[in-house]
Amino acid sequence: MKTLIFLLQKEFKQIFRNKILLALIFIIPVVQLLIFPLAADYEMKNISIVVVDHDHSPYSRKLISKIVASGYFNLYASAGSFEEAFRFIENDKADLVLEIPKNFERELVVEKSQQLFIAANAINGIKAGLGGAYINRIIVDFNTDVRLEWIQPERFNAVPVIQVTSSNRFNPGMNYRFFMVPGILVFLVTLVASYMCALNTVREKEIGTIEQINVTPIKKYQFILGKLIPFWVIGVFVFTVGLFIVARLVYGIIPLGSITLLFAYLAVYLVAMLGLGLLVSTYCQTQQQVMFVMFFFMMIFVLMSGLFTPIESMPAWAYVIARCNPVTYFMEVIRMVVLKGSRLADIRLHFIVMFGFALLFNLWAVIHYKKTT
Amino acid sequence: MFRDRKTLLILFGLPIAQILLFGFALTNEIKNSRIVVCDYAKCGISRQLTEKFAANNNFIVEEALLSHHQIEDAFRSGRIKLAVVFPLDFEDDYQHLNQAHVQLIADATDPNTANMLTAYATNIIMEYQNLSLPYQINTETRMIYNPELKGAINFVPGVMALVLMLVCVMMTSASIVREKEYGTMEVLLVSPLNPFMLIISKAIPYLLLSLVNLIVIILLSITLLGVPVNGSLLLLFLISILFIITALSLGLLISNVAQTQQTAILVSLIGLMVPTILFTGFTFPLENMPVVLQWLANIVPAKWYYTIVKSIMIKGLGFGAIWKETLVLAVMTCLLLMISFKKFKVRLE
Fold first, then answer.
1. Residues near B151 by Cβ (< 8 Å), separated by ≥ 6?
2. Inter-chain contact B266–A24, Cβ cutoff 8 Å?
3. Which residue of A has its CA nearest to B322?
């Protein structure tokens, strides 16, 4: 036991000696936690639209002002022809072009039906899809207005109609930040903790001080624990700062569920991820190798964890990979506990899985770490 | 460099893995969502609608009669994402008042998913009614550059920028600092070797490596993902070389400043990765960000490269359209190189 305490003292001293590193560990995650959610917004606003109005009638002008008034669109320019408008799309100045044909108003009243043309820059498929959907909604609204001008509305509908009312639970403000911030916190804590642990261990190998430790009577598990614990503490610290200071003060996120539960899960999760870092470091000889191998794993883990894109939407093979990914589970847990107030019973499975990962990674690391080469 | 098998493996494997992931696994579409239908009405229409929901492959339907409290519990345990409730007097209202209500309750933890699921469900209900009224305005929508709305078309240029940037920066910064750490740097500096030659000799292998990576990415995109190269391949390569040099210069700068490999690696990785992912514009649209961040994005070289690649690969435009962005990249490279050379100490302190 005493050996362990000495080891820990040494580790902490080494870490705190490197001032730049300290700054990195604490400042960069905080900064990124601030910037990331601000930037990460899928809600579509400021869609640039160029209108080609061949009609110049009261109806067409009304439609255009309705589009602008919606708040989703910026009328970037009015063009005289479709070719002119298309050039705006080429230059990335416009996302959408709306073409109103000649005699739009007249034809609509007389023929009772008309056609509008929309062209969207679909490189970003989501943007084009949503932009198209918004503008269609506005057009449908406008359509209803026109219709009501010409037809008397009945007290009861002529034809039976089904009305849909929708409501949203847990996040009625539809605030995307509530969803992203916990996820990004997980991402950053994972990155910082496991990377530092892996790098630190390999550094000893590279520099050669590990040989000196190997010749001492220090047992394998003591060495591994000595490497795990300091970074576990750092991980918990970063998470705490992120959750209570940044998330609460800047974003107003207060966990709905039990904080004890959250931290209990964090504890197990960190053991698992640090174990992974250690495992990787036992297989690598240089820091550069560790850097790349960890990067590879982190990239895949984070992308497949459901941080940005939902895992249910993945094809079956990818879904299996996502389920074998430890980060996925914490991602789900943090969102469930913080936003929905889920309880222990709800995340029982997640706990079991994470214990499994922690055991797997750490045992593997201990077994693989040889004191003699 | 070739002695280090593991790193080499990762350097080549990484772009491939990323392309596979972004191309096939990561998508913003919502599929396979579990929903619950609470059919209290049990009439012809509600049964037909339930069947329509089940037939739609976006939804996995579970039928149960849940109270609102139970629905919340189900949300909380993550079992379902949406609840469709047909109230008891649905049929009565439909027949006698010509107006019936359906309630959709969504789990808005992920607002995007909630929005899309609600929209899908509403669409299904609206389509079922299929009213055609007089004074109808129809719209014809044309999707340019990407008629099938493939997510890959947006991602692939971004992945190119990300991989090239990260690999180049990490590799150069780490390798130069490693020599510093090992002490072999002193040996090289003492030799009659020109320091500039030294740096160039470090950069060139990674330049070639990145070009190979680039070729692999483009090949994969064309064959597996069906992403076209509509413009000039030559132009694409030339600009890519410029971008690679920009990234290498950045790595150079970091290696001049960092004392240990750990610092170099962590700065490159944690300090660079997230801004690059964010501000390039391929994960989240830049227009959505607060103006301050949009300005910040202009500092990230990858952003300019991404625009250039999109213009060449997808829109098929020529140099005339991208000369401005190319100029920005060239200026950045010169700046970075100048600062690095100034700081490069011929004698180590």
1. A125, A126, B22, B26, B27, B28, B29
2. yes
3. A91
